[in-house]
Design brief:
single chain; 110 residues; mainly alpha; 5 helices
Length: 110
């Protein structure tokens, strides 16, 4: 398969790996600074509004894209055959990571 052959290529594999690392780091940073500050506010009972969730996602994606850099984002888009759809792909990846992080943070079921 074309995509798997590209990912196995060392240069492209490194871009994919680094993208995952940068995305997770950006999510953690926004979670620790922005989201935690919002949750500590008394008036929202520790729950984020839809607008606050969107802002947190925007900040995480902005930070990740800045750290990845324009050239590697273009390469990644080319590898994945996304054209201009890299932002939507990154957001989907971020949502998946957030879901997994929340799942891991839950106490085990008894």
């Amino acid at each position: 398969n074309f995509l798997w052959d590209k990912i196995k290529d060392k240069k492209y594999g490194q871009i994919m790996w680094r993208t995952g690392i940068e995305l997770k780091a950006a999510i953690n940073e926004v979670s620790q600074i922005y989201v935690q500050a919002l949750k500590e506010r008394k008036e929202n009972d520790g729950k984020l509004t839809d607008a606050e969730k969107k802002e947190a996602m925007y900040l995480a994606l902005k930070n990740a894209k800045s750290n990845i850099g324009g050239a590697d984002l273009k390469r990644l888009s080319k590898i994945l055959g996304l054209g201009d759809g890299i932002d939507a792909w990154l957001e989907t990846q971020a949502e998946s990571m957030i879901y997994d992080m929340k799942k891991e943070a839950l106490p085990p079921k008894q």
